[in-house]
Amino acid sequence: MIAQQLRDSGEFLALTLAHPDGLSPCHFTLSNGTHVEIWDTGVIYFQPPQYGQHDIVLSCGIHGNETAPIELCADIVRDILTEKLLLAERLLVLFGNPAAINLGKREVTENLNRLFSGHHSKGAGLINAERQRAKALEIYVSRFYQHTEQPRQRYLYDLHTAIRGSRFEKFAVYPYLHGQPWRKQQLEFLAACDVHTVLLMQSAASTFSYYASNAHGADAFTIELGKVRPFGQNDMRRFAQANTTLRALLTATLPELPAFESIDFNIYDVYRAINKQTQDFKLHFADDVENFTSYPIGTLLATDGDIEYRVEREGEALIFPNAKVAIGQRAILMVVPKSITAHLK
Ligand SMILES: O=C(O)CCC(=O)N[C@@H](CCC(=O)O)C(=O)O
Ligand SMILES: [Zn+2]
What we know:
The model has no long low-confidence stretch (mean pLDDT 97). The longest helix is centred in the middle third of the chain and has 17 residues, at 129-145. A hairpin with a 2-residue loop joins strand 2 (35-40) and strand 3 (43-47). Strands 1-2-3-5-4-6-9-7-8-10-16-15-12 form a 13-stranded mixed β-sheet, with helices on both faces. Helix content is 24%, strand content 26%. The chain has 2 domains: 2-263, Zn peptidases (Aminopeptidase); 271-337, CATH 2.40.50.630. It is of the alpha/beta class and 345 residues long. The structure holds ligand LFNQLBSZ and zinc ion (ZN). Zinc ion binds next to loops.
């Protein structure tokens, strides 16, 4: 019944949103031979009869109000289920937080993207749906990657949108690699997605992309596609290149990509994170100040009780400023331009 519905309509997102708290596993095979398994609400696995060397996880809706990537992934899933897109790689698609998507909110109780790498079970433990979901998503990603002993290339692209506008509308966060070189080929792939701005994290994080990178050796990124808008209000033409390039990866039709040239990129080092320590945390710039804005050295950025945070370095720019985060969490990332011709592989 569900299988037939999905084959006809391809509406896995609608099915997910109708069952935000869980969906019984089921599986079926499309007439083109692609095997489909639903592992849970928002969790769908595809295995084509012949597949290449790439194990690809596409995730979206880790934050419920970041709708452009949800629309993009829902379209890809629909096209696979209705056999318009002939998959050539193993693929796991995740709609991260269905209950938050239904509410049109970033989170229900807690920020899901701060709960990975076991953070879901720290402190009070698995006390809410987001903590349980983070743990379940880790299990699904592990199951997907551990399918075979043979070495395969693992990817995870976690698609988001930023709360604010951004001077560079599309950008990626490259998780901390613990001193390993950044991958040129992945930067070329991002450029093909029309993502030319990359932030290099310098420390471990509790995000989904860091988890996939660190725990599974995946090439993993958080990719920001524009600004938060309600469903139906996204100009998807702005993400057409990301859509086309991801589909080319899935169908093994990616053309040879232009070679990495540092001139094509804005690369930034994440130089420091400012964490909120008290309820008095306050930003000293307007809500419409965009990501990547920089101010002269000494400018007051934020106060937290008696603590003042000022611009420390020439060219330092602000990313993801948000005074509403929970105490203890990052309220701004500060980045500085970097040249990375060395330390690439
Ligand atoms: O615009 C914002 O303030 C947040 C947008 C967003 O959700 N970004 C991710 C980035 C994750 C990472 O650092 O890799 C997040 O904050 O979870
Ligand atoms: Zn997000």
